[in-house]
Task: structure prediction
Amino acid sequence: MSNQRTLFLIAGEPSGDTRGAELIRALKKEDPSLRFEGLGGSKMRAEGMKLLFDLPSLAAIGFGDVIRQYSRIRQIFYQAIHHVKQTKPAAIILIDYPGFNLRFAKKMKKEIPVLYYISPQIWAWGMRRMAVIKRFVTRMLVLFKFEEKMYQDAGMPVTWVGHPLVESVKTDQSKADLRRTLDLEVWEKVVALLPGSRETEVRRILPVVLESAVQISQKHPDFRFLLSETSNVSKSIYEDILKPYKTSLKLICLQDRMHDILFASDAAIVASGTATLETALTLIPFVIVYKTAWSTYTLGKRLIRIPFIGMVNIIGGHKIISEFIQHDAVPENIANEICMILENEDIRMRILEQLKEVKEKLGPPGAPARAAQAILACLNRS
Result:
């Protein structure tokens, strides 16, 4: 007998935990009688989900990370399968995290409706996962318009809901007011530094970002820098990496205030990931930087089918933002690009116009509400 008022959600990464919390909030607004349980993080728990395991705390970004966590993730996987088969929720809602979630969908064999919110990037990795999705997923809820067409062409039920970042990336203060709170002058040039949200990312990328900032400072000693730190990463890790730069950079470090940092800045150096879209939505020019384990990079290079890794460039269909990946992540080159953007008004304005076009393609505000409505409509049909 299905538990008609319970939804089982799975989010395996910090960004998925955020999207899952937004979705739960929207679902409760549509139907307050719903109950939620599953795998997620602290944000989903704060919205009232009964948390079986904190899966985002085990988040892995490379194949080496996956191998190290494999036994624990496997244990969680099978305990969650057992729980779902015992409790029979009304539906399973998978959020991104395809390596785990598509296997989970396979195990369900469509015994319970499976809705997938935030599509796997099959347009980047090849279409081999489409067959699995068509066989084991009831409906896709996608963020990008081009994904809707891709699934429609494949004969897969799909709903385009738009991107939830459109309504979450915002500030209540003007740029001038934000700068005053940060003890920055309105006339100063400010560069945001966003080195990622996971410990492994910060360890690999922050040194490159800081070296780039040093090179910028050598050309423009008056430039200021805002470093976005996250509470997901131990403060001591930032402090260890920052020690050599304390005297060479005009640097302000802020924890969990990424949007304020971006809205207060003139340009940014951003680790590849969700933060690149968040930066684009603030309409400031930026560059994308990324470094990962060489094993991950080598395998990814062989598998990825598209010329860009930054979603801004993928959505735009051409290079809007420069990408400095792996061996190309050279501080001198990164610094030169930022300086060129801030020194050349024509280049800066061209990038801003293209970012505005990308922003329009992400859809209007209200993506979590539209996703919640699509989920409830699917449940009513089943």
User: Anything to note?
Assistant: The chain has a mean pLDDT of 91. The first strand starts at residue 3 and ends at 11. The radius of gyration is 21 Å.
